[in-house]
Design brief:
alpha+beta
Length: about 100
């Protein structure tokens, strides 16, 4: 896979994170590979390997409530790169950090 997509939400609720990750695995299937998660610095991250990060995120939005979507940031980078491109929210400013 060419890209790493990261979906990030504030907080450290491991139960919510694992349930959301399971939903994403079911939703995205083999086309986009959910590659785990991590928690730290009051942020939770879900990692998705994909060849189409925009498409993967658009599909992923289906598992989040409207309230959760307001709290999410999403960004991707080339699998061998270091610099993230933020794709959500659309008006996001500032550096994306894991």
């Amino acid at each position: 896979m060419s890209y790493l997509l990261v979906i990030q939400i504030a907080g450290e609720d491991i139960d919510w994170l694992e349930k959301t990750e399971d939903k994403l695995i079911d939703l995205l299937g083999p086309i986009h590979e959910v590659d785990g998660h991590d928690i730290g610095s009051n942020k939770s991250n879900i990692f998705i390997l994909t060849n189409a990060p925009q498409e993967a995120f658009e599909k992923s939005k289906k598992v989040f409530s409207a309230q959760e979507l307001k709290q999410i940031r999403a960004a991707y980078r080339e699998s061998t790169g270091n610099e993230y491109l933020v794709i959500w929210p659309l008006d996001s400013a500032g550096e994306f950090r894991i």
